[in-house]
Each structure stands twice: as C-alpha cells, then as structure tokens.
Amino acid sequence: MAKNETTAAFRLIQTWVLPPSATLGSSVRAKGILLELRARLPFASRKSIDITGKDLTLSMPEGSEDEFCAARTIILNSLQNIDSLPVIPREIEDILTISTAERRRWLEDGRLPSAGTRTVRLRGRARQITFHVFEPRVVEDLLNQSIVDEWREEDAAAKFENRRRAAYQAKLMRTLKKAGKSTVKSSPKPDDASPNLAGWDEFKRDGLLR
Q1: CA 194/CA 4 separation, integer angstroms
Q2: Which of 62, 93, 110, 210 is paired with 49 by a 20 to 30 Å CA distance?
C-alpha cells in the first residue's frame, strides 16, 4: 500500500509528546512507556498506538470513533502520572549506562535502592518472573549527580584491595609451609636410634634394657 493511502486510511489521529521527566532521556524507557500504555488498552486497540522518538501517536481508521475516544481517554488518564511509572531493569541500565552485573551488584550492596518488585508472565509461557523496580526520581538524581563514576572507582579500589589481600595470604601460606618442612628436616633422631649418647655403653652393660 502506498504511503498516501496509509495516511488516508487513518482519519482519527492524536499525538502526545512524552516529557523528559518521563523518558529520562532513554529510548528504552520511552518504549517501555509505550508497552505500558498498550497493556492498559483493550486488546483490539493496542496496535493503534505507537511511538516515534518521544511522540506517542494514536491512530484509527474513520468509523472507529467510539474505540478512538475510549482509547484516548485511557491514554490521557495514564499520561497524567506517567513520570512516576517505576523504572524496570533494562530501562535503568540504559538510563545510567550501566551493565547488568553492575546493576545487580549495586542493588545487592544497597547503593541502588529498590522500590519493590514486580511479577510478570512471559509472553506465550506459563512461567512468571519477578524483578526489582526503581523509583524514577531516585534514578533521575543518580543520573544528575553522575554517581555511577564514583561507584565504579569504589569497586575498582575494592577489587585491588581484595587482590592484594589474597596475594598476601597466599605468600603467608607458602612461607608457613616452607617453615614446616624445615622443622621436620632439622628434628633430632629419637634416643633409641642414637647409640653415641653419653653413658650409653654403661647403660647397655648393666643390662637395664633386658
């Protein structure tokens, strides 16, 4: 179908621009907001909304006025508090430019505070997964303060210190092991294996061992 025919087919169109406080500068976050809005719409209307950059667009063909109005109302209500939508793992990784390993490590040691957990069912599967979510304003503060660089420096220093301690412990164990071997080699022979002890001949002559 030609482009002008596609445009003509959708007479009912409305567009919203997502604010920076909602996307936090992340295209992954913007896509997550789109998926959240689609999940709130009736199943038949979910594909009617899409996103390009920060622009959300709801479009339906002429004759779908009732469905369009219902979907638009849901979207308008959802967008009122969209900047408070919890940040999910893949979004915070993109926003802060961090790896999955860093997110898990900082979450475990408390530097990255959790806002709770969320459980979802994987598409087409019976299995559910549970993951931590994060408060958008906390994530925004971390982004503005560039705190991630400080955490990486702390991790590098801790890693160096752990390696230094491990090397010291390994050296200490080798030293103790060598000292133990030297002690065994320098130990004197038992008395009954030393025939040259003073008074040994008289002791044998008197027959005290018989």
Answers
A1: 111
A2: 93
